[in-house]
Amino acid sequence: MKWAIQPGDSPLFGPERGCEHFEQRVLRFDGASDEHVHEADDEVLYVLEGSGRATIGGEEVELSPGTAAFVAQGSSWRVDDADGLEVLSVLVRDPLSSNGATHAVVAVDAVEAGAATAGRAFRLLATPEVGCRSVTQFVGYIPVVRAPDHFHKYDEVVYVLEGDGKLHIDGESVPLQPGTCVHLPAGLVHCLENVGPGEMRVLGVFRPAGSPAEAYYPDGTRAAY
Hints:
The protein is mainly beta. The protein has strands spanning 4-5, 22-29, 36-37, 42-56, 59-63, 67-71, 76-92, 103-107, 114-115, 121-124, 136-142, 155-162, 165-169, 172-176, 181-184, 191-194, 200-207. The chain is 0% helix and 47% strand.
């Protein structure tokens, strides 16, 4: 299935995989890094593993799993110290103007959860409210259930953080596990199923920005939650 990439496969979703709006990368650090700056792209970051310190847009930041950041095009960030640090970077092509915002840092545990379909929940990270006008970055929490097939009106890339499941698209199914990447173009009918035994957590980035809870059934009616 072209919509999923399993752990160990590369590259992740980006132009080479037909994903024009985004480029996913897993960055690894065991010490200080060079300066990172993208003149044409916004970037959203999420710490997957390890710990460290970084300077993001001139702000010193402690890094641990669940730390998220938005870095506007032309702004810089660097890792100052790291111990087994893994960061998921998503570059956002042709971003909207940030209206002067250079960066934002959000800790997932500091964010209140919202509700979505089929008992799912989410926490919003990089959003227009913190200056990230092009995309919404969020962590989704999926209980042990198969939700009804649905689609979104936004283009989304997903990274599985925890749990095991299946991705169902057009009669085909592939396994989901930590490290699996998924691309869901706008209008693609799909279902992410958690097969258990525990909760599944996923990291999503989508554009245009909005609510992860906005979904539609295959007949076009809006999904209830």
